[in-house]
Amino acid sequence: MSSNQLTLDEACIAIVDCEHKTAPIDPQGQHYAVGTPAMRANRIDYSEARQISDETFQEWTRRLTPAAGDLLFAREAPVGPVVRVPETPKIAPGQRTVLLRPNPLLIDSDYLFYLLTSRLQQARLIQKAEGSTVPHLNVSDVRSFKLPQLPSLDTQREISATLRVLDDKIESNQRAVVLGESLIRSFVQQALDESEGELGTLGEYCDLVKKTVKVEDIDESANYIGFEHMPRGSIFLNSWTSAAGLGSHKAAFSPGDVLFGKLRPYFKKVGIAPVAGICSTDILVLRAKDPRDRLLVASVAASDSLIDALTAASTGTRMPRASWKDLAAWPVPVLSNKERETLAAIVAPIHERLEHLTLESISLAELRDTLIPALLSGRICVPVEGAAA
Predict the structure, then answer these.
(1) CA-CA distance, 30 to 53, in Å (whole number)?
(2) CB count in 10 Å sphere of residue 370
(3) Residue 388's pLDDT is what?
(4) Which of 73, 122, 177, 337 is deepest in the core (most CB within 10 A)?
(5) Which structural domains are found in the chain, ordered by start?
(6) Where are the alpha helices (DSSP H) in 130-255?
(7) What is the DSSP secondary structure assignment for residue 235, as one 8-state letter?
(8) What confidence score (pLDDT) does residue 129 get?
């Protein structure tokens, strides 16, 4: 171990603050401004990033153009999330972030990523940010943040390579989920388009679950899903927390229920619950009347046409939100029993496999998060290539 402790400033070639203004959105843009909302679970959630033009990208990166190996660090709202800049960099630092370029002669980029995302360093960062009305770090705070003693570069690379194997598998699973979900939605839409049944409504396929859990009755060990846990534009939920510390009434849901964000900014947050639990009362809980129809319900509720219609209807209203009445009235062809059986036989196995991959990724992430402090502290050692020779 080195006898010296480096600050982030000493460990990096450059630390560059973001633009202190909101990047203008360009729906045709080929780049993204990644702010703190898009730094979900230390990965870039492009559905929460701002699509920007080439011109905006050039302006937002004029001091330093992000490159593979750089890290983006959130210094406010919240403090602490870190994401890697991808191999094909098309991102610019969004608001409340700083761009870090590690010095490869001193610290491995992946090692710094895992170090900064470890529980111990996250706690130190949050502690450093406390004391203001809105906890935040100034750029000077980021620069002066002292890293723990670093192992040799070879050991750093071995540690990060071990952890990267788990991350690569998680990424592979997520890509499979995205492709599989696209297939499911395509099969559902095809079945609806080819149906010879009369036009019905979404309310004929599902009911609204109205089970409220009072704050005093909340089981702190229960699973909790809020808007922050729901990816935008995907019906597969892969994140939740415990209900400990919640201070208001919640809605209950069961595995297989469809959760729909009823506030306008969250209409695209729709997903099938893989577990039982409770959620925000600003999330509608839909339950398919026939379990065979849950993928149909989720696909229709998450469809662009329904979301666009709800968004247009709520524009200009004082409380922009959707109601169960709005969803229940949405026109949907009525499939015959044979059509339902055929559709379920196609999409149910895909859903089962994708749910398995989703839960596997959660387990792998838990294993990775358990390994990080053990590897970084030296409690678990990995062999350095050639050390046994």
Answers:
(1) 6
(2) 11
(3) 38
(4) 73
(5) 8-150 (3.90.220.20), 151-195+338-389 (1.10.287.1120), 198-334 (3.90.220.20)
(6) 139-144, 153-194
(7) S
(8) 87
* Contact in structure between 66 and 91 (CB atoms under 8 Å): yes
Query: How is residue 150 written in tokens?
Result: 């670093």
Distance CA 299, CA 304 (A): 10
Angle, CA of 74, 76 and 80, to the nearest 5°: 45
Distance CA 218, CA 152 (A): 48
pTM comes to 0.84
Both tokens of 109, joined, read 């980029």
332 — pLDDT class (breaks 50, 70, 90): very high
Whether residue 78 is preceded by a cis peptide bond, meaning omega within 30 degrees of 0, is yes
What are the tens digits of pLDDT across the range 240-287?
Answer: 999 999 999 999 999 999 999 999 888 889 999 999 999 999 999 999
By the 10 Å C-beta count (0-12 exposed, 13-18 middle, 19+ buried), 307 is classed as middle
The predicted structure's pLDDT at residue 265: 81
CA 246 – CA 17 distance, rounded (Å): 34
3-state secondary structure of 131: coil
292-305: b or e for each residue (b if 16 or more CB lie within 10 Å)? Answer: bbbbbbbbbbbbee
